[in-house]
Design a protein that fits this description.
InterPro entries: ATP-grasp (IPR011761), ATP-grasp_RimK-type (IPR013651), ATP_grasp_subdomain_1 (IPR013815), RimK (IPR023533), Rimk_N (IPR041107), Rp_bS6_RimK/Lys_biosynth_LsyX (IPR004666). This protein is α+β, with helices and mostly antiparallel strands. Helix content is 32%, strand content 27%. The protein contains nine helices and 16 strands. The protein starts with a strand and ends in a 12-residue tail after the last helix.
């Protein structure tokens, strides 16, 4: 197969591993810088050009679209879909998962466990918003944040009011979530491919920190997940419409709670921690499923 990898940086661990895994299995791998691809839209034959050449003859495309380039990245991916190239994750599913509020609303509608969450732009009554999620301590998140940025733990009612007022003063839409004390600063990253959790790791925040992101000094370890956690992760990915996803789960007193569904999960942490060839499993998934006409939306999203 001829497989495109949409990625801003071919040297990134995840991009490198996907290219290696594809080449080892005999495929032609082409890395395309997402922002430097350009499109011919108003034609009977949709085209993508890159460095002066038409990009055609691809069987599949692997989107590794960073959060900051979601809009343009999804436009390029939609163009591939219109050219009948099979996407590992579809543009509609990526857009859905990147909109944190929409993602939580969709998960909630399907009855998937979530932390109690409030959403606001300029509430008349901040104390009522705080009370809605069970009071302090609580977590305040900016909708646009990634890798733990724009996430604050407010330990008292007064601190929560101050932080919410500060964010709203900056014209930021915010989410306010209950703080799951019993999780102890740890979450579980479940790596879903197709309808299976192929690998899982526990991420533990460093001392004095509540965000468990590895970029923030968190540590990762192997973990055995329960059947309920496995089912929750697979269902969450399915609700988003993602074939490959990193589903972040908290262990609470009332079962697994989904924090986030990531459409471009990093491979370094999960491969290093579990010793599994996750990149190889992603390529195998494409080998089984990448056929013309298999894209559900065909760029209509």
């Amino acid at each position: 197969m001829k497989i495109a990898v949409l990625s801003r940086n071919p040297r990134l661990y995840s991009t490198r591993r996907l290219v290696e895994a594809g080449q080892q299995r005999g495929h032609e791998m082409v890395v395309i810088d997402t922002l430097r691809a350009y499109m011919n839209i108003a034609s009977h034959k949709p085209q993508i050009h890159y460095r002066g050449q038409a990009m055609d003859g691809f069987d599949a495309v692997i989107p590794r679209i960073g959060a900051s380039v979601t809009f343009y990245g999804c436009a390029v991916l939609r163009q591939f879909e219109m050219m009948d190239v099979y996407p590992l994750n579809e543009s509609v599913a990526i857009s859905r998962s990147r909109d944190k509020l929409r993602a939580l609303q969709l998960l909630s509608r399907k009855g998937i466990g979530l932390p109690v969450t409030g959403f606001a732009h300029s509430p008349d009554d901040i104390p009522d918003l705080i009370q809605m999620v069970g009071g302090a301590p609580l977590v305040i998140k900016v909708l646009e944040g990634t890798q733990g940025m724009g996430v604050v733990l407010a330990e008292t009612h007064k601190a929560a009011e101050s932080v919410i007022e500060a964010f709203l003063g900056l014209k930021q839409d915010i989410m306010v979530q209950e703080y799951i004390q019993e999780a102890g600063g740890a979450d579980i990253r479940c790596f879903v491919v197709g309808d299976k959790v192929i690998a899982a790791m526990k991420r533990q925040a460093k001392a004095g920190e509540f965000r468990s992101n590895l970029h923030r000094g968190g540590s990762a370890s192997l973990i055995k997940i329960t059947p309920e956690e496995r089912m929750t992760a697979v269902r969450a990915a399915k609700v988003m419409g993602l074939n490959v996803a990193g589903v972040d789960i908290l262990r609470s007193n009332h079962g697994p709670l989904v924090m986030e569904v990531n459409s471009s999960p990093g491979l370094e942490g999960i491969e290093t921690t579990t010793g599994k060839d996750v990149a190889g499993m992603i390529i195998q998934y494409l080998e089984k499923n990448a056929e013309p006409g298999q894209t559900r939306t065909r760029g209509r999203g």
